[in-house]
Amino acid sequence: MTLLARDEADVVENWLDFHLAAGADFVVATDNRSQDGTTEILERYARDGHVHLIRESGEDLRQDEWVTRMARLAATDFGADWVINSDADEFWWPRGESLGDVLAAVPVRYGTVTAFLRVFVPRPGEGPFAERMTVRFSALAPINDPASLYKPIRKVVHRGHPEIRLTRGNHALVDSPFAPLRGWFPIEVFHFPLRTPAQTAHKAELQGTAFARHIERAPTAYHRNMFEALGSGRIRDYYEALVVDDDELERGRASGRLVDDTRLRDALRAKAAGAEPAFVIPTLVEDAEYAVEAAVLGEADVVRLQRRLDELENRLVTVEQRLGTRVYRKVSRTAMRVMGREEPASR
Questions:
Q1: Are 11 and 38 in contact (CB under 8 A)?
Q2: What is the per-residue pLDDT across 91-111, written as a single tens digit (0 to 9) for each?
């Protein structure tokens, strides 16, 4: 696995313990200017032989570049058969006995599979995130806002390759050398992006600074909204608006929009008690329910593709209109000069 982290001390040790127990053989990690203890945790696991640590001092969060570097290093220097590229707030849950087992089932002709992102909602109270955050949105919940961090989305897993290239967010490969295995999602990704008011404010600040320094890369709508809330002094209101209290949880359960999911909590509890987490092969009924949810990803992809096509069409119309105006003005000036009504600009 690869890991990109900055100031994630509240989750990174859990991340390492969980994935090493889930079947990850080794971690190539990039620490980007952490100041909260994240670096020291990664250094400890590096001394124990579980992590190869890269220290990155850049402020512009070149995620696609840094993750691509780690993914290539995993293949060239550490012999990775498969590479999972992760952030510190993502926990990759195999729908089988281990990550290695589910990926070993992929036929040789295929080189990429996709994972299903599960976003967990903030809950009231304090304490460890996994103890509080045991509720997520169902994939069947009607979320139509493209700026929502709860919208259905996928992540890519790929075979090791020395020339691999990742997109921002690890959602796809650029010029992939691999045939994709479509329609099968052997891994669920438990995502915990917003955990406390302070962590949310810090995340907004780091992301906003990175996008400001990397002007050619536009922020996502989700990050832009969060940064605007920080700039206007409304970041706590932004966070509190996303917190699901007990009353809202009951309504969400009744409507099927919200789902209780304690798998990560239980796995971390087992690990803390000295036991290994249990990864159970899903039953036929569970697989059928999962297939229904997974179908939503395909529908969401169609919607996103149509939205991108609409944006592209609007841009082309704008370019054509601007081009038409420029051509008209140029032809008009030329005609005026020919008719002797305007002196050439070069004189």
A1: no
A2: 999 999 999 999 999 999 999
At CA 13, angle to CA 152 and CA 156, rounded to 5? 30
pTM attached to this predicted model: 0.83
User: CA 101 to CA 91: how far, in whole Å?
Assistant: 17
Report yes or no: 223 and 211 within 8 Å, Cβ to Cβ. Answer: yes
Q: Which domain holds residue 317?
A: 282-347
- Same-domain check for residues 63 and 125: yes
Same domain? 289 vs 178: no
**pLDDT, tens digit, 9 for 90 and up, residues 115-146:** 989 999 999 998 999 999 999 988 777 666 66
- Examine the domain organization and report whether 118 and 130 are in the same domain: yes
Distances (CA, A) of 277 to 259, 265, 271, 311, 347: 21, 10, 6, 45, 82
Q: What is the pLDDT of residue 344?
A: 45
Is 157 buried (19+), middle (13-18) or exposed (0-12) by CB count in 10 A?
Answer: buried
The amino acid at residue 245 is D
Number of domains in the chain: 2
Q: pLDDT tens digit string along 38-71?
A: 999 999 999 999 999 999 987 777 888 999 999 9
Say if CB 152 and CB 79 are below 8 A apart: no
